[in-house]
Amino acid sequence: xxxxxxxxxxxxxxxxxxxxxxxxxxxxxxxxxxxxxxxxxxxxxxxxxxxxxxxxxxxxxxxxxxxxxxxxxxxxxxxxxxxxxxxxxxxxxxxxxxxxxxxxxxxxxxxxxxxxxxxxxxxxxxxxxxxxxxxxxxxxxxxxxxxxxxxxxxxxxxxxxxxxxxxxxxxxxxxxxxxxxxxxxxxxxxxxxxxxxxxxxxxxxxxxxxxxxxxxxxxxxxxxxxxxxxxxxxxxxxxxxxxxxxxxxxxxxxxxxxxxxxxxxxxxxxxxxxxxxxxxxxxxxxxxxxxxxxxxxxxxxxxxxxxxxxxxxxxxxxxxxxxxxxxxxxxxxxxxxxxxxxxxxxxxxxxxxxxxxxxxxxxxxxxxxxxxxxxxxxxxxxxxxxxxxxxxxxxxxxxxxxxxxxxxxxxxxxxxxxxxxxxxxxxxxxxxxxxxxxxxxxxxxxxxxxxxxxxxxxxxxxxxxxxxxxxxxxxxxxxxxxxxxxxxxxxxxxxxxxxxxxxxxxxxxxxxx
Length: 513
Known about the structure:
Elements (H helix, E strand, L loop, with lengths): L57 H4 L30 E2 L5 E2 L25 E5 L21 E5 L2 H7 L6 E5 L15 H9 L4 E6 L4 H10 L3 E4 L5 H41 L11 E7 L8 E9 L5 E11 L1 H19 L4 H15 L7 E8 L5 E7 L5 E3 L6 E2 L20 E4 L4 E6 L16 H14 L4 H16 L7 E8 L4
Parallel strand pairs: 3-4, 3-5, 5-6, 6-7
Antiparallel strand pairs: 1-2, 8-17, 9-10, 10-11, 11-12, 12-15, 13-14, 13-16, 16-17
Helix pairs in contact: 5-6, 6-7
């Protein structure tokens, strides 16, 4: 019967905004005759395209090249020169509620205009302007970056339209603080509209727009979460262009710092879980020597579920255990901590063998997040005289026994029971083994034997591990030094870090004079 039961699996159309006419200079802005949409409706009644809700802003997700702070783009990538139907045309809203470009024409259903069908003006940054006077004089001047490319501008007259226009390619939002917040008429909170936008677009850069006599509210807007504020009467293309680029870069920096802090917090939580998996042994009064080695598998940067424990009960029996929850991650690690704590409590309460493992299976079944999650376990109870032990295996590799003058060997595993959580009502027979007067007993998880050997792709396996330990014992290695050398050699044979965690536990009984 194969001692390791690790083969069981463990579980845990967008509408574009269309293309508009090419960018024109101030002297070229003449109305373009509307083109029939082909859908049987007049252009004046064509509905506003509804793009899908975005997931990650272009500025944070790296969809556009980073803008330099002196007014130009950091680089002109090939993607920026590619015409993208939904990211080529600045939109505003005409008095009838239709999305238009800055020249005042509405794109047809195919996203083309009569004079520049199939072409688009490349752009690096996209601004969403939210202000409540689309029919009046534009508060945003024409914006060009240092290379002469236009900064694309879309205009929404309320937050409902803004939510529709908030697509993947929007980098920055310019919000008029005079705009009323939806459903908050008469609200005493002067920044209610800003707070609503920050909830709507938590990952976007936001600029607040105020009046000349309302700079205090602009400063408060920055404290609430806006990247900066601008005074309406002081706007010009150069100032606004630089403010947009600074806001985008500042938001990028804040997002990077937030992700870094979250990563550090996760690392701290993982270290706490690992400490829960690897406790301090309770061996007071025992003559046995204890050593342990744990090395997390970091190729996938995920926390594993290997755990072990050793306790001595009042009758002098030393109980040792090592186990492994299938899978990687905090859920599996947390389950391993629960199983270890439950094992210690049940052992100190006097349970062992089949009764203890049956109770642990009940704990696992109630605590696991998925019915396919299981755990392998090996338990050993060493008699007070240290010469014999009881062994129970639940789908786990058999321990290795080394005695003076004899080659190291695996303990019998013919009565290996199933892993915990696989078979309801399973039983785990307890085998009696003779240890002798002087011995070393090594318990380990399958990470020690599942590493590869050189370029062959073959696994080290239990036979390869036994041969390696025999050689190291012949070299005189013992205790912590033996475990450290064994784990390092397995890593070396694997050609680098192991994909799975490795936990190794060693108990030694040395004959005293």
